[in-house]
Design goal:
The structure holds two protein chains of two kinds. Chain A is an alpha+beta fold. Chain A has one domain: Roll (Ubiquitin-like (UB roll)), CATH 3.10.20.30. A five-stranded mixed beta sheet of chain A has the order 2-1-5-3-4. Chain B is an alpha/beta fold. Chain B has two domains: 208 residues, FAD/NAD(P)-binding domain, CATH 3.50.50.60; 121 residues, FAD/NAD(P)-binding domain (3-Layer(bba) Sandwich), CATH 3.50.50.60. In chain B, the strands form seven sheets. In chain B, strands 6-3-2-10-23 form a five-stranded parallel beta sheet, with helices on one face. A five-stranded parallel beta sheet of chain B has the order 12-19-13-14-15. A four-stranded mixed beta sheet of chain B has the order 1-9-8-7, with no helix packed on it. In chain B, strand 8 and strand 9 form a beta hairpin. In chain B, helix 1 packs parallel to helix 3, helix 1 packs parallel to helix 6 and helix 4 packs parallel to helix 5. The longest helix of chain B has 19 residues. The chains are: A alpha+beta, B alpha/beta. Chains A and B meet through loops of A and loops of B.
Chain lengths: 106, 339
C-alpha cells in the first residue's frame, strides 16, 4: 500500500499506509491524524480538509478541478501549493507523498 | 416567552423530519437556526449536488431534498426562528429555559439538537489583530451600507458577496478589491462588471494578494497585503470587508454540560438522549457506537427522539404507536381524509 506522510502543524510526522482509491483526506481521518476536519465529508463543499503539498510532489498530482480552486478561496491561509485533500485519490504513483496540515481549518 | 413541547436546534434535513415526527404524534415544536434560510448543510454547502442515498429517492439535490421536507411539513403549523443561534440552555424545574443571541426565550421540557457540525459562522481573516477591529471597522457582512459613504473600503474575496459589494460601494466610496488569484468564482456578469469598473478606475483591483497585516491605533489606518512572491503593498483604508463564506463551529453547544467527543454529542440509541434528561441529539452531531453520518440515520434518530419527547411533554398520557396508513387521529392531524 502507498505510504503517505502527514506533517501536522507542530512538526510531527505521521507516516501511514493508505489503501489505493481512498482520498488523502480519508487516509487522515481514518487514522485519527489531527488537523483535517472534512466537515462536508469529501464533497468539495467546505474547504476544511485543506493541506499544503511538498513542492516536489505538487506537479505530480492530477490537476485541480475549477471547483477545488473556488473552495480554496475560502481556506485558511491558502498558498500556491494548497490542495483539498478530499480531491487527491491515493494510488501507487503517490507512494511517498508528503503533505503539511495547516494550523487551522477556518 | 415561547412555551413549546419541544425545541429543535437546526433546520437541516434531520431537524425538519424530527419536527414532522413530533407533529405527527401530536406535539408542538419550534425550530431555531443560525442560517437565514431553511435546509442546513444541504442548502448552504451543496444545494446543486446530487444525493443518491435517500431511501426511495434515487437522486435529488440538496435543494430538492430540502423543498420536499418543507412540503412534508405543510399540514403543520411550525414556527421557525431563523438567523438566531441558541446561546444558553439552563434547567428550570422540569423545563429547559433556552435563550438565543437575538433575545428569543423558550420554556420547554425537550430540546433536540439537530445541529449538524455546529452553526454556520463567517470565516475570518487569519491575521489575528483583525479581531481588534471586528464590528468597528472590519466586518464579515454588511448591515448598514451608509457608513461607507465617502470612505475607502477594502474588500477581500472572490465570490458573489465580495463582487456585489465592490460594485455597489463603488458608487459612493473608494473601493479596493483584493483576491488571492486572477479568477473569480462569482457570476460572470458581475465579474465582467467589476473588470469594467476596474478599467475605468472606479475599483482598485489587487489580484494574487492576501491580507498580511492590519495597522492603526484605535482607529483602523491601513492594511498590508502580500502576494505569493512576498511583495507587500500598503493600502490606506477606513474599512475592511471579508467575504470568505461560512464555516461550521460547534459554538455554545460546548458549554451546556453535555458529553462531547470530537465535536459530537454522546447519546443513547433508545431515545437519542444526551447525559442531560430532556436534551437529545440527532443527525450528524450525535455520536454512539456504529453511528453513520447519513441523512437517513438522522431521520431514524429524529423519529425515536420525538417519541421520547412525548413522555416529558405529556407525563399523564400514554403514547400509543400508530401507522399513518390507518390512524384516523394522524390523518386528522395531516388534514387528509380517512378511508
Amino acid at each position: 500500500m502507498p505510504k503517505i506522510t502527514y506533517i501536522t502543524h507542530d512538526n510531527k510526522n505521521h507516516t501511514i499506509e493508505v489503501q489505493n482509491g481512498l482520498s488523502v483526506m480519508e487516509g487522515a481521518v481514518q487514522n485519527d491524524i489531527p488537523g483535517i476536519d472534512a466537515d462536508c465529508g469529501g464533497g468539495m463543499a467546505c474547504a476544511t480538509c485543506h493541506i499544503y503539498i511538498k513542492d516536489e510532489w505538487f506537479d505530480k498530482l492530477p490537476a485541480k478541478e475549477d471547483g477545488e480552486e473556488d473552495m480554496l478561496d475560502m481556506a485558511y491561509e491558502p498558498k500556491k501549493n494548497s490542495r483539498l485533500s478530499c480531491q487527491i485519490i491515493v494510488s501507487d504513483e503517490l507512494d511517498g507523498l508528503i503533505v503539511n496540515i495547516p494550523s487551522k481549518q477556518g | 416567552m415561547n412555551k413549546t413541547d419541544a425545541l429543535i436546534i437546526g433546520a437541516g434535513p434531520t431537524g425538519l423530519f424530527t419536527a414532522h415526527q413530533l407533529k405527527l404524534i401530536g406535539l408542538d415544536c419550534e425550530i431555531v437556526d443560525n442560517l437565514d434560510k431553511i435546509g442546513g448543510q444541504c442548502i448552504e454547502l451543496y444545494p446543486d449536488k446530487p444525493i443518491y442515498d435517500i431511501p426511495a429517492v434515487p437522486e435529488c439535490t440538496g435543494e430538492e431534498l430540502t423543498n420536499n421536507l418543507i412540503n412534508q411539513l405543510k399540514p403543520f403549523d411550525i414556527k421557525f426562528h431563523l438567523n438566531e443561534r441558541v446561546d444558553e440552555i439552563k434547567k428550570e424545574n422540569d423545563n429547559w429555559f433556552v435563550k438565543t443571541n437575538n433575545g428569543s426565550e423558550f420554556l420547554t421540557p425537550n430540546v433536540i439538537i439537530a445541529g449538524g457540525v455546529g452553526s454556520f459562522e463567517p470565516r475570518k481573516f487569519p491575521v489575528k489583530e483583525c479581531e481588534n477591529y471586528e464590528n468597528k471597522s472590519l466586518f464579515y457582512s454588511v448591515k448598514n451600507k451608509k457608513i461607507f459613504e465617502g470612505k475607502t473600503v477594502s474588500i477581500f474575496g472572490g465570490g458573489d458577496s465580495a463582487l456585489d459589494w465592490a460594485v455597489e460601494l463603488s458608487n459612493n466610496s473608494t473601493v479596493n478589491l483584493i483576491h488571492r488569484r486572477d479568477d473569480f468564482r462569482g457570476a460572470q456578469a458581475t465579474v465582467d462588471k467589476v473588470m469594467s469598473l476596474a478599467k475605468d478606475g472606479k475599483i482598485n483591483l489587487f489580484t494574487k494578494y492576501q491580507m498580511a497585516s492590519i495597522k492603526g491605533n484605535n482607529e483602523l489606518e491601513s492594511i498590508d497585503i502580500k502576494n505569493d512572491d512576498k511583495e507587500i503593498k500598503t493600502l490606506k483604508t477606513d474599512y475592511v470587508l471579508g467575504f470568505f463564506g461560512l464555516i461550521m463551529q460547534l459554538g455554545p453547544i460546548a458549554n451546556w454540560g453535555l458529553n462531547i467527543n470530537k465535536k459530537t454529542v454522546e447519546v443513547d440509541t433508545e431515545k437519542f438522549e444526551t447525559n442531560q434528561k430532556g436534551i437529545y441529539a440527532v443527525g450528524d452531531i450525535c455520536n454512539y457506537p456504529g453511528k453513520l453520518k447519513l441523512i437517513l440515520s438522522g431521520f431514524h434518530e429524529g423519529a425515536l427522539a420525538a417519541r421520547a419527547c412525548f413522555k416529558l411533554a405529556r407525563p399523564n398520557e400514554k403514547y400509543r404507536f400508530e401507522f399513518t396508513t390507518s390512524s384516523k387521529t394522524i390523518k386528522d392531524r395531516l388534514g387528509v381524509k380517512g378511508d
